[in-house]
Write a structure and sequence with these properties.
alpha/beta; seven-stranded antiparallel beta sheet; about 35% helix; about 20% strand
Amino acid sequence: MPKRTDIKSIMIIGSGPIVIGQACEFDYSGSQACQALREEGYRVVLVNSNPATIMTDSQMAHATYIEPLTVEAVEKVIAKERPDAILPTMGGQTGLNLAIKMAEDGILDRYGVELLGVKPEAIAMAEDRELFKKAIEEIGLEVCASAYVSSEEEAIAFAAKVGYPVIVRPSFTLGGTGGGIAYNVEELKELCTSGFEASPVHQLLIEESVLGWKEIEVEVMKDSADNFIVVCTIENFDPMGIHTGDSITVAPAQTLTAKEYNVLREASYKIVKKIGLESGGCNLQYALNPKNGRVVVIEMNPRVSRSSALASKATGFPIAKIATKLAIGYGLDELPNDITGTTSACCEPAIDYCIVKVPRFDFVKFPGVDQTLTTQMKSVGEVMAIGRTFKEALQKALRSLEQDRYGWGADGEDEVEAWEIPSGERKGYLEEVKRQLRIPTPERIFALRHALQLGMSTSEVCELTGIDPWFINNLKQLVEFEAKLREELPSLVGAEEGKGILWEAKRLGYSDRQLACLAGNNEEAIRSWREGLEIKPVYKLVDSCAGEYHAKTPYFYSTYESGNEARATGKNTVIVLGGGPNRIGQGIEFDYCCVQAAMALKAAGKEVVMINCNPETVSTDYDISNRLYFEPLTLEDVLSICDLEKPEGVVLQFGGQTPLKLALDLEKRGIPVLGTSPHAIDLAEDREKFAQVLRDLGLKQPDNGMASSQEEAIEIASRIGYPVLVRPSYVLGGRAMEVVYDEAALRLYMEQAVKVTPDHPVLVDKFLESAVEVDVDAIADGEDCYVAGVMEHIELAGVHSGDSACSLPPFSLPDEIISEIKRQTKMLGLALGVKGLLNIQFAVRDGEVYLLEVNPRASRTVPFVSKATGIPLAQIATKIMLGRKLSEFDLNPPGKPRIAVKEAVFPFIKFPGVDIILGPEMRSTGEVMGIDVNFGMAFAKSQMSAGMPLPLSGTVLLTVSDKDKEALLPIAQGFLEEGFRLLATEGTAKFLQNHGIEVEKVNKIGEGRPNLLDRIKNNEIDLVINTPVGKDPRTDEYKIRRQVIASSVSVMTTIQGAKAALAAIRACKDNGLDVKSIQEYYESN
């Protein structure tokens, strides 16, 4: 069928901020959709609240609304833009839920807007578990015995009927939020509480357990003529019971028989036909009983999903792009396969390699949290690796995680190795290993190695873990070969005789670091020996057709065999190093910068080579660069590609800290680093050298010192005075950073939080209480420095910059302070010799400006500043690296004055028991942006976008520390003036009453009922202002903060946040919500 000509304008709904369960894969799908629709001549309207995405760049859509993803805001966009249709399948569960709600409320009918690709009835059938169950049974397929329940009593009754354990799945949620496995009635009651709160329709699905069965995903495409293809099968390494986002997964499925594959293929066709998917991509999940072959259908996602991105990168088949074109009328047979250029999209991908995805977890950011993996997703990112075998791909994936592992063990990073354990202790150690096998955690993959080394059989391991014997046997082969390496390698390093065993080790995915560890040597010696023997990787094409057709798109992976398929030219080549897996502290913002760099380099006539290992990202799309290498970002892997590509330069400053760590090593080997030199990077990161730079410039920084022992730390703290900010010198993203107020707290920190040695000292800085923190993004060219954005934090000093809300331009700083900050920024940019991006963090206290930190690279605020100002910072910085000057660019922000507020989004709902109080260690997973003509409305939008809209009426609970009571007075008065009722705990209430403010006292916990927790649980409180007295889990305020998260009540934990909330509420009442595209903001007056 030809494309539709009866529609002219199409809206795409994005997925909002990065959260656990919904990450940057939807930037990838949304970007592809925007490009596909523009190619076909449609006007594209985009709504998304996440400024860190490529899709919200002003060039991607004709009208880009960075507005809250709420029914009210999106309806206003529809009323203004009048799109003919909405594509609801590119924005994850957020986009789909929003489309359903607007259809149910009659908004789509009111404005004559249709949904493309999937109708509301089909969405409802796929998402409503009862309707889905009925539909599946009508086509002769099985689902787990299950029941929808709306009360705890109904859940308990059903569990008693089918027996424990049972699976609890809240309706209409993402990433399994609020769900889990209940092994007894008490656990079921707990999950009912969290599940009902998580479900927007207050409904749970209780299912019989299929724990231990295989979990298989099938990614399919269908068009309106019922043409149907299987793009990819994905097999979970872990059995049912672990969320697929938290499981290691393998593509294509490795253990299915031909019969089982055909059963799943046929079932998938029946399901998409029955549910009513008109056209597009779809993900189906199945459980398969390995004992008897019984198959049950788990769920269907009638949209592009997290696994769609993985399947796209695994096969090279652009699922989001094809799904978009199917939605506007094309058939699969009418669309070309971009990879081959000669076959159609009807041709199912065939792959002759193995894909392994491994999730990345950041539990270290949430001390004390339960690390057990269940049906509720907890990972924050993932990596993908490609190899000729499962063994090779697994080792590459594990070293891609950037968690100090360089393969499947044998890398010197285990606390103890099995062969080192004295015989008398082996039994006890084996019992501990068995415990680690029974309870799935991120470390179980490494426990499997120890189990096999200790002599456990394949059947024993399978019994404890539920993992298929095929996978365990592959791991057993690695264990056996590792033993051979340990025995033979030490005497062979440097010798010709070692060529055979070295070649086989590399084919099995062993890194040079692992081989050095096994040989008792160093990595450089192994590399020299290997290269001297001409053992180098070759690069194979990801071609979607197993070599049957010639592939046009240069998308490569490395392996060790014959036949190099890479197409390096050695001419005008620039390599961009990506950011690796998403993690807290380094996320989608850096992928945005890498993509912008690739665009700028292409425009400058360069051949762009991208190296990255993250399947969720836009940077790993095959058409972003001239050549894509899906490889780990380790020195070994990057050097091999540089050896092949012979680049004229490598761009490091856009991928966060990941590529920067390689700067000195690359320079040492004669590989040019474009932009800021490794020497300048080292100057900014070396504490003593940097302090000298500041002294030479006459700039201030808080008093500080570096301690190599507990005694030194105490001496420094005594000298500079408490409170002090302490942190390890060897980590980033605020890891293990803490403010301590006395010697006892410092001793506790030194004993428990860090391992201090002369090689790993602790940094001790005077903490500037009540200071205002300021972030600055700038670009320097070696001769001049342009300050692109000065951002004032809404929280006071002590909150990590990635977690603090901030305003651009500043909302309260005096002009003379802003001018001084700009002056200091320019001085530093020139003194450090920066060529490219520069981020500086300042603190302002008592009219003095103090410098806290300088990062001569892209920061996580670059996308935010770029969207707020209309200046494409990363693109300009890239051109500066190529030799252009700032004077060549128009750096005046276009359009009308506006204020943008960035707000962080946190995963606290996923981690029960974790305090929500913010501190120096970053814990947010994503961000949103509110933009408007005044600060109050911009802040209000940021809160709506973060999922915590501020109330316009109701009751405010006040409970603040003594030091904040004076500052609370005008805020409390302001809420009274806006018609709010005030409740306060005894100390706060007495203080306010003594100052003439009308407030009711509320009982603390332990002072009688109803107390403040009862009030929150009974929905009697609409906003909480609670500044901390302590972080101890026994304190009332800790319990308050946990309850407001569970009850979805807005909470402000700083006085500054409370002031901003009051300003936002006033703005909403005075002005109401208005929406405007960023293109409108950029228009001249």
